[in-house]
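Predict structure. Input: GntR family transcriptional regulator, 221 residues.
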Amino acid sequence: MSQMHRLYETIRGDILSLTLSPGHAFSERQFEALYGGSRTPIRAALSRLEVDGLVQRDDRGWSVTPLSFQEIEAASEFRAAVEREAVTLACQRARPEEIDGIAEMVVSVTMDMSLDEWHRAGRDFHVELARLSGNLFFVRAVEDVMTRLARARWLEIRSLEGRQRTVTEHMNILDIVRRRDVATAVAAVTEHAQSTQSRHVEALMGNARGAAGLVVVGARK
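Output follows.
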C-alpha cells in the first residue's frame, strides 16, 4: 500500500468516526506531524478526501467538512430512490444463495462488536443488497451515498437500541426479497431509509447541542 493510500484511509477513518470533528481546522504541516507523512502524499490524500466531500480548503488551510442537515436529507432521499429501484431488480434477479449469504452476514454481527465493525457491517448490507440487482451502477451509487451518510450513522449506532433495530430491519428486508414481493420490498426499503434519516437527524441534533466543537450547518433549534 502506498503512503498516500495509507494516509487517505487513516484520515478518512478518523473523519468518518468523528475522531476528527466536523469543522476541525488544520494545516498540511499539522497533519504531517499527526499522521507521520510527508508533504506530497499528505496533499494527495487531502485532495482525494476533498473529492469525497470530507475536507474542504479555506483561506488558512483545510478543515473537516461540517455536517449538514440539508445534505443528510438530500442524501437520504437519493438513497431511498436508488434502493427502491435496486430492490425491485433484486426481487427479480437475486439467487437464493446470494440472499442467504447476506443474511449470514447480518446475523454474524453481535452486540459486543466494536462500533467500527458495526458501522462497516451496516454499510456492507446496503451495498450487497444493491449488488443483488445485478447492476453495478446501483452498487456504486449506494457506496457513495453511504459514505456521505457515514458520520451521521456513527452517531446513531452508538446506542444499543439503534444497533438492535438495524439488524431487525435488515433481516426483514431480506425476508421480503426472498419472497419476491416487489411492492412490499419497495415499501420496506423506503420506510427503512426514511426512519434512519429521522434517527440520523435526531442524533445529530443531540450532538450539535451537546458536543463542543461539532460544527453542523443549518442546525435546528
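Residues 209-213 have pLDDT under 50 and may be disordered.
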